[in-house]
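Record 1 of the preview.
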Amino acid sequence: MSRAERAGKLCPVCERPFQWRARWRLNWEQVRYCSRRCASNRHKIKSQVPAAAAAPDHPRRR
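->
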């Protein structure tokens, strides 16, 4: 299989494309992240709106 023929996906954490690897041949459909590092940082997905942007303009009063 040439490199151009390999299937590719987009990592939701780092937003970089990654390609099929032989070690993923049995579970390519379940692979979501390009690396273990991205899998462990899955709660830090870049496509989410940052908390500062979602916060109201005025500070909370206590």
